[in-house]
């Protein structure tokens, strides 16, 4: 189809189409092919600049590539570019307040060329580093994003659809700021901005559909009183100083990671996907409810069965990460998440003997339409041992058929008695089950417990227990046990033997 469409185009348009599909680096290189190719790259729609573009074969003693080399490259390319048909202008380099005249010129170029996407990543630090370490001491002052440029005329910024800012300072002018009337996606990472300026900025982005804010430590309140009727996806990550959030919108997807705070929406009835990553689950209840809670940690199952409001009946996907210190104690309500299709739980279990994995069997009753269940566990080494028959009979809860659950994935399965009982209960109830994967290996880890290293013995114990008790009870051949395997060999006496490896 592409060949047919290109064959109907004039040769010059064909060549331009080919060059536009190349990266900027290779598009510029085509200029040496012939006179016909010399200026084709000058209409390239995607202008991506980063230090990798300047990598060259270095001989011993050659000078390293610096931000000044990149600045010179950007200035040279933008000077030669036609300034038409630009979709993206992206600069990724550790620049700061010492380079404002260069960056301001690039922003003006994006405005004049009617670029639809502008991305400024002016830091050498990743989001993971900023989340874990925070603002490094002694870092240069951030570049101040020139919001005043977007007030010279009503057309300034009107073509911008996507704006991504990283490690900049953002201060709105007292007057004359027209905002971004057609902006649909706004992402800010490590941006220095006040509560009032952010509220004003959001009030001038009426078509906003996605808002992502991460590691913005100067924010204390996120407020949008003006209606954001098109905002459907809100992503908040590690804004540790924020104490309150109030948004006049109806979200479909909410992602939250960080300390817990009150969170108010105009409505929550449209929420379909909720992802929450917390270490203080007790405070999490205040996201949707204003309750007086004790300071004790609360189990994830308590949160699921009592923390979510009834207005989340249309919830389809729920992902919850939590630290477990004690067993669930609250009464369990039944059949609340009638639309929930996918549930992913990440449990960091510190409670030792106080926790009981079998409690999570109630999830099948709370979500009768559940199709995919993921249960990822990390367990503090607390004296549990793999189950043996001499440890007592396995418990069995009352159950009724679950006719929608098709896929189950369990990790961190060490073969403890309550883990075996939970796996057997799910296997027994799930009449339409197509695949049940039990992985003895740990796939999640608390941020402050990286020093914990599991031994091969734990994985092998989990494998043997899962094989002996869960897989043996499988009558439909749907259970797959991962994390170890049998290796067969022929002994010196001619007999076949095997051993386990992880």
Automatic annotation (TrEMBL):
InterPro entries (alphabetical): At1g61320/At1g61330-like, F-box-like_dom_sf, F-box_dom, LRR_At1g61320_AtMIF1, LRR_dom_sf
Signal peptide: 1-16
Domain annotation At1g61320/AtMIF1 LRR: ranges: 77-442
Domain F-box: 13-47
UniProt keywords, alphabetically: Signal
Protein name according to UniProt: F-box domain-containing protein
Organism: Digitaria exilis
Organismal lineage: Eukaryota, Viridiplantae, Streptophyta, Embryophyta, Tracheophyta
